[in-house]
Amino acid sequence: MRLVVLGGGESGVGTAILGKEKGYDVFVSDFGKIKENYKEVLIKNGIDWEDEKHTESLILNADVVMKSPGIPEKAPIVKKLVEKGIPVISEIEFAAPFTKAITIGITGSNGKTTTTMLTYHLLKSAGLNVGLAGNIGKSFAEQVAEDKYDSYVLELSSFQLDGIINYKPHIAIITNISPDHLDRYDYKYENYIDSKFRITMNQTEEDYLIYDADDEAISEWLQKNKTRAKLIPFSLTKTFEEGVFIKNNKMEAIINQEEFQMETAAIALEGKHNFKNAMAATSVAKLMQIRKATIRESLSNFQGVEHRLEKVLKIQNVQYINDSKATNVNATFFALDSMNTPTVWIVGGVDKGNDYNELMALVREKVKAIICLGVENRKIIDAFGNVVDVMVEVGTMTEAVRMAQHISEKGDTVLLSPACASFDLFENYEDRGRQFKDAVHNL
């Protein structure tokens, strides 16, 4: 069997290692440059590869192709594979049959990384032998090759779900759905929503779907479509006979006839959206039969995720916050919503079809100045030019942070929450967040 892997990054190289171990004839092809550390791994494992090109004669003879999530369906080589009827799947689809481990799959437009990390923290603190993969950390396929874990917590993007055929998580979570990546879905929101719900398409009555019952897109889909999984809703406003909700400043979970309660004030993560992440993670912990004391302790000591509303430093009584992970409008909405002081907002990057109107009321209420950090800032300037007193364009992160220091006064907050992808000026959102933190430390 010939396995061709498109993309020589974390998921591609991990898949190649697993494929080789399972006896496939493996070839890795990357249209860009493969990083040196990944080349070394491929060479060490005796895996054939090429970069900065796709040689069709070496690709179109595949029995199966694993496409990295960053490569769009519209890429010419992918179209040719599909025309030839060669299955093009994701890393998760390829690796899942080779493990007996339980998987917990987490998707959503926002909150999925925090929910994934929090769920992993809960299970690990309880002493479970659990791995962490998907969009985070080490590739799922490579971990399956090493066969160390009894269960995995997987953060799954819509792109990874697009490439599944038979994969099903035992427990699925959909944190929320808001317009994102519409450039990859023909600018049709319903295509993107359907993509997220692929997480439950193969689930059976033995499996669970945990979801945000306050989310309009999720509720509508569930009214019109069926899943066989057992539904576990969570909500800030409703209560359930089975599910998780907030009542009298307590989070209450009722799952499989068992009750769990915890004061919301004791949850380490702040903000309404983080209560939702905590509810989703608690649902998993209850289904995995983790002790109540362990759940309480884990929720009260969880430190949060880097680049997500991360407090960097207070300088001259101005708080600097790194929310570089906010790559869409909905994530930035949560960030602005949680601001309690006048805010200098650093925003911009690669626009994915953003509608900034959703932020208008919050910007009027909370934002005193906007610093645009992107190659193309026209949409942001058009949206908010008449709303804030100060609007500045800058070309580097150092400039953005110095300008923010210049504009801000005692008691203000400087918030990096870009609402956009980072690929115009940075390698990725982590690079953007680190540059912000470095610039703040250098003030």
UniProtKB/TrEMBL annotation:
Q: Does the keyword Transmembrane helix apply?
A: no
Kindly state which reaction or reactions the protein catalyses. UDP-N-acetyl-alpha-D-muramoyl-L-alanine + D-glutamate + ATP = UDP-N-acetyl-alpha-D-muramoyl-L-alanyl-D-glutamate + ADP + phosphate + H(+)
List the Pfam families hit by this protein, alphabetically: Mur_ligase_C (PF02875), Mur_ligase_M (PF08245), MurD_N (PF21377)
| Record-level GO BP terms | cell division; cell wall organization; peptidoglycan biosynthetic process; regulation of cell shape
Q: Which GO terms describe its molecular function?
A: ATP binding; UDP-N-acetylmuramoylalanine-D-glutamate ligase activity
Ranges for domain Mur ligase central: 106-284
| Keyword hit for Ligase | yes
Amino acids binding ATP: G108, S109, N110, G111, K112, T113, T114
What InterPro entries would the database entry show? Mur-like_cat_sf (IPR036565), Mur_ligase_C (IPR004101), Mur_ligase_C_dom_sf (IPR036615), Mur_ligase_cen (IPR013221), MurD (IPR005762)
Q: Which residues form the Mur ligase C-terminal domain?
A: 307-420
> Its domain of life?
Bacteria
Please state the Enzyme Commission number of this protein.
6.3.2.9
Q: Which GO CC terms are listed, alphabetically?
A: cytoplasm
User: Which UniProt keywords are given for this protein, alphabetically ordered?
Assistant: ATP-binding, Cell cycle, Cell division, Cell shape, Cell wall biogenesis/degradation, Cytoplasm, Ligase, Nucleotide-binding, Peptidoglycan synthesis
| Metabolic or biological pathway | Cell wall biogenesis; peptidoglycan biosynthesis
Q: Could you tell me where this protein is found in the cell?
A: Cytoplasm
Q: What does this protein do?
A: Cell wall formation. Catalyzes the addition of glutamate to the nucleotide precursor UDP-N-acetylmuramoyl-L-alanine (UMA).
The family line of this record is: Belongs to the MurCDEF family.
Q: Can you say what this protein is called? A: UDP-N-acetylmuramoylalanine--D-glutamate ligase
List the source organism: Flavobacterium commune
Q: Which gene encodes it?
A: murD
